[in-house]
Amino acid sequence: MKVFSNAVTYNYSWDEVSSANWQKYGPWNNKSEHVIAVDTLSRSVDPATGVLRTERLICCKQSAPEWIKSICGKVDESYVYEASYVDPSNKTLTMVSQNLTWSNLVSVQEECVYSPLSEGETLFSQSARITALCGGWQRIRNSIEDTLVTRFHENSIRGREGFERVLEMSRKVFAEEKERLQREQMIAA
Q1: Structural domains in the chain (count)
Q2: Which of 10, 64, 140, 175 is least buried, going by the fewest C-beta atoms within 10 A?
């Protein structure tokens, strides 16, 4: 098993980050072209805790290295199951995901948490446990795990850049809407 971990500080409040999270695969993010579809499977609020739980199925276009394709066959689309938990009381947004594609060859379990650092800063912590499941072939297992750790690192850089753009656009849209509402209130007064 190999582990990838990453931490990023966003100069946005937890409220801004947790709201913008739902737009991270949308048109504002020019770094997420690989995401083909995001389908919400279920969404519920726990009445006792106020935690919003959402289950999603994410379909991505992925190009695997040729040597992996020779072992597994050509698969251009991959599916990931994601469950997220928004806890407004503790101000945490936790997302856990598991690969569905190639799950008989490799298990990828990822956890991402957004939590406030200060009034205007939010910490994003990401970890992924990658385990190749190919029996006694240690060299192949290591190669698969190393390849996926490298891919996680590359994707984390693109993901941060794309989410920064989503955050900027989200802040701009909310500021424009706030300004519009203030104008309307002044006219009505």
Answers
A1: 1
A2: 175
Structure tokens at 28: 């504002």
Q: If we measure between CA atoms, which residue out of 18, 19, 1 comes closest to residue 124?
A: 18
Contact predicate 166/24, CB 8 Å: yes
Residue 153: count of CB within 10 angstroms of its CB = 11
What global pTM score does this model have?
0.87
Q: Which domain holds residue 129?
A: 2-188
Q: Which residues of the chain fall short of a pLDDT of 70?
A: 63-65, 67-69, 71-74, 135
Provide the token pair at 158: 């693109």
Closest CA to 31 of 148, 172, 163: 163
* Token code pair at residue 90: 């503790």
Distance of alpha carbon 183 from alpha carbon 177, whole angstroms: 10
pLDDT score of 68: 64
pLDDT at 32: 85
Residue 93 sits in a domain whose CATH number is: 3.30.530.20
